[in-house]
Amino acid sequence: MHLPLQLLNAQGLTLHGLCTVVALLVYILTAHVMRQRRHPSAAIAWVLFILLLPYVALPAFLLFGSRKIKRPSTRVRPVPVAPAPGMPWAIDTLVDMGQPRPAPCPQLALHADGRQAWQALLDTIDGATDTLDICTFILARDSVGQALIRRLADKAAQGVRVRLMLDGLGQLMSRPPDLDLLRRAGGHTALFVPPLRSPLQGRTNLRNHRKLVVADAGRDSARLWCGGRNLAAEYFEGEPGNPAWRDLSLDLRGPLVSQASALFEQDWLFAQGERRPVPTPFPPAAPPSPPDAPLRAAHAPHPAPGSVQGSVEWRHGAQLVASGPDQVDDTIYALLVTATYRAQRSVCLSTPYFVPDPALLMALCLAARRGVQVDLLLPARSNHRMSDLARNRALRTLALAGGRVWLAPGMLHAKLAVFDDDLALAGSANLDSRSLFLNYELMLAFHDHDDIVRLRDWFGAERAQATNFTPRPPGLVRDVAEGLLLWLAFQL
């Protein structure tokens, strides 16, 4: 009587062991072929999950486990060169990571508030005469979303090529307005990685969080609008009783517009079914001009993307910084950590969500301990309550190390990092593991002293309205809850 039961148990154990082995092999081979390069703690967590619950872990890994997409084998990396005297370290670092070289960004405008950002967005759209490309994480079915779709449909009806790309999961978070109006007018739409599509490629968990509007790329009237704002009412005008969120966006002209257009083109092709982004080789940075060369050449024409233009190119320029599964490196993360270790006087950070990984948090704490003034600005209460709970352990650690944490009233959604007088980063990336390791993100790196000062002044004005965070020891329940949330920090 017991023998059949023993045989069934043995067969069950054998089947369970076989499933576990298969799941582990899928994880190992995928990590190797896709060059995932996970943090050791994340790798250990996945292995333990597979060993304990292989039937649940394998489908979860196939749906959500991929962190990088396979890179084209033909990608050309820049030829390493010795840094030229006076060349900023950030430019060398970014170029070596495959990012485009710096270019002038004339007519840079920082938007003081949501109304100014909205007007600049409308001006960018209305001024387009040839092409108009829009990429956003969220396009809401509200007054802003409806007005934008009507505006885009009007441009498409006038013969402008209009392309609108929305993120698949972002679309679920805020249902977009009627896109058929745009399509009937001749516009084109694409959904970047729709939910549950291609689960075997593990792309479901990878979101396109980039925000950019490119008008007339390649023409003299070319213009770029970008930053941290999604296309929804709370980012521009707010609602009765709910003021607009504080955010940071900007617009500019010049060669950077062509770089942003090339990035959009890669994402558009990928959203349309291309399995791999188009390889874009970038030449090494140009050596600086002699010290007695003029600092500005206002009369000189803008160079073509990728061309060399002496001192103006790197002394008074900015760089497009793309990060995400389509990049070999974790570009923004690597730049943040490096810049923090190199900072000598000040580090100014603004983010709505602060759930850093241990290496970035350690860099910030060590900077504060060696006398660098580290200022972190974030909302007293964000729109993600779990993120607010998960951030407290990092906030206490930074404050006890000597960093200053500032809590802004209302919802602050701006993403900004300023290091000394050397580097400023502004764009779409939050200071959490999802933005730094999983999302497709876009930042602009500014090297021009005047631009850096303007961004630091913006930070100072926002910080003046904030209150100082006072660390308090957590109770047992809160401490355990924070630890559990940090286990899932990459999802916040």
Kindly describe this structure.
This protein is an alpha/beta fold and 492 residues long. The protein has helices at residues 2-33, 40-52, 54-64, 89-96, 114-126, 143-157, 168-173, 180-184, 256-271, 310-315, 331-342, 358-369, 385-400, 433-438, 449-463, 476-487, and strands at 103-104, 109-110, 131-136, 161-167, 188-192, 212-215, 223-227, 249-252, 317-323, 346-350, 354-355, 373-379, 404-408, 416-419, 423-427, 431-432, 441-446, 467-468. The strands form three sheets. A nine-stranded mixed sheet has the order 1-9-17-15-14-10-12-13-18, sandwiched between helices. Mean pLDDT is 81; it is low at 71-81 and 276-314. A hairpin with a 3-residue loop joins strand 14 (416-419) and strand 15 (423-427). It is globular, with a radius of gyration of 24 Å. The chain has 16 helices and 18 strands.
Tally of DSSP helical segments:
16
Report the C-alpha radius of gyration, rounded.
24 Å
Rounded to the nearest angstrom, the distance between the terminal CA atoms is 53 Å
- Spatial arrangement of strands, main beta sheet: 1-9-17-15-14-10-12-13-18
Computed structural class: alpha/beta
Tell me the helix content.
Answer: 40-55%
User: Uncertain segments of ≥5 residues (pLDDT<50)?
Assistant: 71-81, 276-314
Largest sheet: 9 strands, mixed
